[in-house]
């Protein structure tokens, strides 16, 4: 070997061949090759999408802050080094005493590489472990200085950079995106007065009223401790046992069993701050405020059967959706709104504004739009940004303050505390994604992983040796807690209004459209059908009787219960609610802007399809902003009668559940092939069953018939054309914009 080395021959000539070095596939040793920016930045599918949805995102450009630039690493054109910057000559082989001899302890290069690898993982979040994030900005419509001195609301048009992370709650880091669950909606505002974290959810209420119950709640919903099942699911005994014994959870249960808990996309769900917060203005005057975010694309959800199937087809469904939309320049946007009210109003409500299991109906206090939240840049690195971002409810800025909500109080402690073990010490605020854009100066020192190098000998205040710096900001500039008077005895207990648990659950249920109510019944029936202890099922149904008798009866019927249990006793006589029905609580209240941009549509193709027709439809749909895929029995060439096509998805790798609609075009031979393909039939059945827009042209209708879909009658969202016409794409888009055609749903499903 030594001879071979000195003769300049590689130690193992065949090894190089294996790595492709002699096929011209690998870059030459000791040099770099230029990589086109698109190729470096995107996956093939993203490039595809970009081409299909129009304007590409500018790589690495944030509309506002460039705060992370100083720590970005781009290895283009660089030589491989150790962590000490030592160039590495050979990244394939460890150092050995002879080619077949033992590896050597002094191989610091191998040891550094393996040691680092051994410690790559950090603990996942105890809740909300699974999530996806993006950068963007908040833009204020008008100055809100009369209400608050908070920096983001200081001036009309002012932009504040943000990082937002969406998440599921119960599942572990690698769990599916489409579990039935609450979604986290956490926003870090990098304001010029420091960071403000609004750590909200896509549901405006919560399961419990007091932080004391949070560990119990989470232990009940997480996989059962003896066998570690089920993953990312609330459909099990311990969750429902706890719920049935905690009537305060009833309102939240209604939301969690509704379609809100299976969103179509993070881009299509609302966000809420949940708790009542305070705005405080420069004069120290305060009002109560609730935060709302409404998606421009409207609120849309999946249906349960679809969510179940997507979790197999694409467990990263929501992560991919967010990534691809931003990558394609289709920036998700929400309108931020506030409900503002004062102490006198709060005192007049039949519920307590400190109770996080209650909403304030919009009919009582309307939502005022105050700005827009836009996400316009994907993270460069998932771990560095999305995983290491640390949201803490304790992070507020002058102008924002807490209320005495006892759930919020526990959170103010919990989030900072949890980061200390999750991120390995008290200096997590120095991680680039967490570091404020506002300068940080204080006398906190040392701790694990300290980045800042503090100069001087003074680390205390007051001091004279450093001229008194850093000095107190004082009430004019600094954060001043709202001086809410407190005069009561220390007690463990709850205020009277906290004891009413059902009025708003009833309000929510009665405000849903008929299909949404059916979905809630279906969800409750499904979840409880997974509960093995009959007494728990009965107790849940007993609670439901206090919400709505028809709901309780329908769930009992679904569970094959012979009789209804007595209603659960109520702690207090319910006060008369101010509002009996609130249309704003239905998802249908927010259909969106009517556009079909970023909707995904499958054009089913097979040999013999009318290729010209496919291309014409594809072109028109793409023109409307639809993301189109040609789905064939296999990838690649499809004979299209003179116009050959290139299928970019297959019936195996893109089942119907990852689309919002499907079209089968004309072509006898193709129709015969698809009719004989069980995958195509399943594709169409699911498209139909999940109430999505479905179109057939000419012979395409035969495939629908083969799938058992009646093409004769008039069915919402089922479009059948004898021949291809110039208006087909418009007709399809008009139906697609409605998202779903629930009138088609039957129980049990007929298709
Ligand atoms: Fe959280 N929650 N939570 N939570 N929560 C966490 O913080 C906690 C609650 C929410 O994308 C943890 O950094 C307590 C309500 C979101 O990183 C932890 C209580 C709401 C996220 C924690 C609640 C939320 C978390 C776990 C009851 C909606 C993900 C890791 C007193 C308003 C943030 C972490 C992200 C994460 C504690 C209740 C939303 C343990 C004690 C109510 C969106 O600190």
UniProtKB/TrEMBL annotation:
Known catalytic reactions: 2 H2O2 = O2 + 2 H2O
The Basic and acidic residues compositionally biased stretches are: 15-25
**Which keywords does this Swiss-Prot/TrEMBL entry list?**
Heme, Hydrogen peroxide, Iron, Metal-binding, Oxidoreductase, Peroxidase
Q: Name one GO biological process term.
A: response to oxidative stress
Q: Does the keyword Cell division apply?
A: no
Q: Where is the active site?
A: 128, 201
Keyword Magnesium tagged: no
According to the UniProt record, where is the region Disordered? 11-63
Domain Catalase core per the UniProt entry, residue ranges: 81-469
Select a single GO molecular function from the record's annotations and give it. catalase activity
Name the residues that bind heme. 125, 165, 214, 411, 415, 422
* One GO cellular component, as annotated: cytosol
Q: Where is the composition biased (Polar residues)?
A: 43-56
- Low complexity composition bias: residue spans: 31-42
Gene3D superfamilies, per this entry?
1.20.1370.20, 3.40.50.880, Catalase core domain
The protein's matches in SMART domains, at most eight in alphabetical order, are given as: Catalase
What's the EC number here? Answer: 1.11.1.6
Q: Which cofactor does it need?
A: heme
Q: Give the coiled coil ranges.
A: none
What does this protein do, in the record's words?
Decomposes hydrogen peroxide into water and oxygen; serves to protect cells from the toxic effects of hydrogen peroxide.
> Which family does the UniProt entry place this protein in?
Belongs to the catalase family. HPII subfamily.
Protein name, please?
A: Catalase
The organism is Verticiella sediminum
Q: What lineage does UniProt assign to this protein's organism?
A: Bacteria, Pseudomonadati, Pseudomonadota, Betaproteobacteria, Burkholderiales
